User: What shape does this take?
Amino acid sequence: MAEPSNENLKRIRTDVVGSLLRPAYLKQAYADRDRGKISAEESRRIQDDAIREAVRLQEQVGLDVVTDGEFRRLNFQDSFAASVSGFDARQADLSFMESLSREGKPLQRWDPYHVAEGAAILQRRPVSQKLRMVRNLPLEEYRFVSALAGKPAKVSLVGPDRIVQRFDYQKSKSVYWSLDDFVADVVRIEREMVRTLVGAGCRYVQIDAPSYTAYVDAPSLDEMRERGEDPMKNLMRSIRADNEILRLFDGVTFGIHLCRGNQRSMWHREGSYDAIAEALFGGLRHDRFLLEYDSPRAGTFEPLRFVPKDKVVVLGLVSTKVSELEKVDDLKRRIDEASRYIPLEQLALSPQCGFASDVVGNLISEDDQKRKLEVVVETARQVWGTT
Assistant: This one.
């Protein structure tokens, strides 16, 4: 397959955020591995088979870009958490992920980061030593999925803003003299991940940045201030860190995904983009902004007026939280509404988030998932003439 140009990838009309529902046999493999019933090698073989099915699904549906479904991760944040040492945290496994999900209720607010003995980045944890990359999970993922796919494959990395918000700096001062020192290590490690991905041929890297919506969410802002933090200072530091990750990587499309939480059909942030839109859209250098717009919690499309003319906004209009299938005509109307604030040629379409931000997954079926991906592709065909 000829490598797509950066400009072509930047302008694709259909997108996916990353994760797909784990098949039942893959979840069973995780459980069997945790109990010692199967080896790590057998578990990986089962993951390989599941990824092959995931790629076939996405290509048959007709998406412009594919992922491996994040089937090698228990949670989307494992891109970093499973690749580094240094956190004072417990090891996440299937039973831990399932126990977290049982605490919340579907379609209601839920944030599990206060767990006392939690896992790195899933919960707010300190470090016991400086961060060091001991594995490159995103590179492992890309090498396998790119060898299978006929379409371009993208890889997602959890961004520095989420990593910092889930870092207990007050209990880590003996390791890091300042929060800036910690951020510098995060950026250094993530730049190395991106460098190896680019070297392996990856031309679309997505940064998952769900914590940016904390800066419009009242309870989250209160928590920052209670810790003695300046939310605006935090925001600007994270924008600088995100930009540093992609600096000097020419010929690569960078996307950044902003959402309000998406685990077992629950959420943990609310508030429109308005208050941070100018700083965020004007400050971030990414090519594609993948934005959650499937519920009233996201507000209106008006903040899109701050998006620069050389950027693309991927409207996350198709919900991964509920089984109800969106209608093409309704999606077209919403795209038309967005085009009042940003030209149609700067828009694209995707689900609002992944279908399974963690191994448990949202409360929809695999058939629901397929039909929702199909409606993304059909809507894009009717709006932009893509096939």
